[in-house]
Amino acid sequence: MIAVAPVGSVPAVALSPLLPVLRETFAAEVVIAPAVPLPAAAYDGRRRQHNSTVLLDVLARARRPGWDRLLGVADVDLFVPELNFVFGEGDPNRGVAVFSLHRLRAEGNGAGELFARRAATEAVHELGHSYGLAHCDDRGCVMWFSNSLAETDRKGPRFCPAHAAELRRLMARP
To answer: What domains sit in the chain, N to C, each tagged with a CATH number?
Structure first.
C-alpha cells in the first residue's frame, strides 16, 4: 500500500488525480493519508525555501505499519543544500518521498492537464527513488533527473524498460 499525504496547506482533494496513476504504475493500493504539518524547522529564511530532507524526516515519523511507502505532497519551494531547488526527494531506507507542486505550475496556473501530468511525473519519480531506483540516462524515462519543467514535460511519468524491470525486482523483495 502506498499512502499519499498532504504536507502543509495542500488540500487532500488535490491528491485525487495522482491516485489512479500511482495505482497503475506501482500495481499497489493507494490511499490518501492524514495531513502532515509543514515543520517550521524545514524553512530556510535566507533561501526562502524548505529543506526537503527535513520533510522526509517528518514523513518517516508519520509512516504507519501497513504502508509500504508514504509520499508527501507539498506546495512550497524545496531545496537540498547542494542544489538551488529540487522538485522532490525520496529516501529508500525509510520508504518515504516528497515532492512539491510549487514549481510545476505554468505561468502560475495550478490546474489543467499539463499541471496534472507534471505532478504525476514527479510523484512517480520520487516514489521510484523511495524504492531504490537511481537516476537514468534515458531522457524519456521518468527517472531522468529534471533540472527544468521542460525536462519534466519531455520525460513524462513512464519508466524505461530497464527501470521498469528494476522496480519489479525491488518490489518483489520481502
So the answer is: 2-172 (3.40.390.10)
- Give me the phi and psi of 172, to 5 degrees please: -80, -15
Beta strands in the chain (DSSP E): 2-6, 30-32, 43-44, 49-51, 69-74, 78-79, 88-91, 96-100
Write the pLDDT tens digit of every residue in 16-60: 999 999 999 999 999 999 999 999 999 999 999 999 999 999 999
122 is catalytic: no
Q: Select from 1, 32, 9, 29 the least CA-distant residue to 100.
A: 9
Residue 147: what residue type? N
CB 71 within 8 A of CB 15: no
- The answer to whether the predicted template modeling score (pTM) of the entire model surpasses 0.70 is yes
Pick the catalytic residue from 89, 122, 126, 166: 126
**All residues at 6 or more sequence positions from 19 whose CB lies less than 8 Å from its CB, including other chains:** 4, 30, 32
